[in-house]
Sequence to fold (184 residues):
Amino acid sequence: MQPPAGSQVSRVPAQRPPSDHLAPPSPAPVPERPRRRLRTVVTVVASVVVALCLGGVAAGYVLYNRAAAPDRGSPDVAVVNYLQAALVSRDQNRALLFTCDGSLPSIDGLRAQIERREQELGSSFSINVESIVVAMNSSSAATVTAVIRRSASVDGVQQSLTDPWRFEVKDIDGWRVCAGSMVS
Fold:
């Protein structure tokens, strides 16, 4: 209802939210981005460390493979490495890396004979491979002759025994010993 004309009641304008009366607030100044120099330095250093670690792992892998891989680069090296594994270190698994189709019964027999004599004499034998001669039969086959010397000290006296051997080797992904026999 309307107040009568001339009354003392004043009209109050409708109230509005204060935001309508005021000018829009000025935007606050955008804060400066903090400098990220420390983060950049840490990121670069971490990247370099990761790269060096990966390079070290790769170099270690390559060097290990080169050191652990059997050397079958030539017929005489394959024979010497086979005899070292089979007779000196007596590591049958390592010796198999140098053969065509498994162990050689003649060398297995020689190793068994050496082990029996060591037990009988109570002495340890020293095995040397000497006088190695390679005869190439073809580009992928060769005959290697070598002298196997067995030495021991028995009752304070140094003794040695030599046996000439002949080995047949073939180039099958590197030179491998396929047969071996004592030369009589």
About this structure: DSSP finds five helices and four strands in the chain. The chain has a mean pLDDT of 83. The two ends are 141 Å apart (CA to CA). The first strand starts at residue 126 and ends at 138.
